[in-house]
Design a protein that fits this description.
- It holds the Pfam family RVT_1.
- One of its GO terms (biological process) is DNA biosynthetic process.
- The strands form 3 sheets. A 5-stranded mixed β-sheet has the order 1-6-5-2-3.
- Helix 8 crosses helix 9.
- About 5% of the residues have low confidence.
- By secondary structure, it is α+β, with helices and mostly antiparallel strands.
- It is built from 9 helices and 12 strands.
- It is globular.
- Helix content is about 35%, strand content about 20%.
């Protein structure tokens, strides 16, 4: 990050820790890609005040995407790091972080800082405001473009590229998809036929080992909640699991495992 100009060395009496965190991507603990480095801004976030801005509700965003013949998804490279910190704020000591070789401050917007998400969403909304609407939607760094024809699609792509270029934002070409009939977007699959679950995400849920404690039960319930619209009678299926999740006993009864299997199976059957 120092070579890329994202951070600078500073002197500060205060500093947050540089820590290794587990990603919520379903990878096994022995996989290096299951982790990432973050700054522990917990103590700073408690006392931080920042301008509020509404984050887009993913469910509202998804249901408003029209079924179209051709779609593309764009992904902004490095997310928050594309937004520069005000030069006068860079050297403020409260955002400093420490590593074994020194103390540093960010010149770009860091993860885990209070206000980073709404500030980023606001910036993207302002940049793409001229084109947001029926065919184009955005959630943080993910942009979806849906069109009824190829000609219209190319026209919309050019408009979006122009706005991003004028704002100095860049895309991650390895995470962008162009001219698709089916498109993975925010954990779902969108096509002209409607919206369905992402098989790779569902596979992770189905292949999960039966929870053995309340923490693992909570993790399972959280993963299925993302797909609640696809699960008929989800509440009745989850009721005994939720009750069980509030205990410290092992999750081992046959009827609970039956609810798990039913819940997983129904994920593959329903559309929006």
């Amino acid at each position: 990050m120092l070579r890329e100009g994202k951070i600078i060395p500073i002197q500060s009496p205060y500093a947050s820790l540089f820590v290794l965190c587990r990603k919520n991507n379903g990878l096994l603990p022995d996989n290096p890609r299951a982790y990432r480095f973050e700054i522990d801004y917990c103590k700073l976030n408690v006392i931080t005040k920042y301008p509020r801005y509404p984050l887009t509700l993913i469910e509202d965003l998804i249901t408003n995407i029209p079924p179209m013949k051709i779609m593309s998804s764009l992904y902004l490279r490095s997310g928050y790091f594309q937004l520069a910190v005000n030069p006068s704020d860079v050297v403020k000591i409260e955002r400093a972080f420490v590593r074994k070789n020194g103390t540093y401050a960010f010149k770009r917007t860091p993860l885990c800082l209070s206000g980073a998400a709404p500030n980023f969403q606001k910036a993207i909304d302002i940049i793409l405001r001229p084109v947001l609407g029926k065919y184009i939607s955005v959630y943080m760094g993910d942009v979806n473009i849906s069109s009824p024809s190829f000609a219209r699609h190319v026209e919309l792509l050019r408009e979006v590229f122009k706005l991003l270029q004028e704002a100095g934002l860049t895309l991650d070409k390895n995470k962008c998809n162009f001219g698709c009939e089916k498109l993975k977007y925010l954990g779902l699959v969108i096509s002209k036929d409607g919206i369905t679950t992402d098989e790779s995400k569902v596979k992770v849920i189905i292949e999960m080992k039966p929870p053995k404690n309340s923490r693992e039960v909570s993790k399972f319930l959280g993963m299925t909640k993302w797909y609640h619209k696809f699960i008929k009678l989800r509440r009745s299926l989850l009721a005994p699991l939720s009750i069980r999740g509030n205990t410290k006993n092992l999750f081992c009864r046959r009827r609970h495992r039956l609810h798990l299997s039913r819940l997983s199976a129904r994920l593959q059957k329903y559309r929006y």
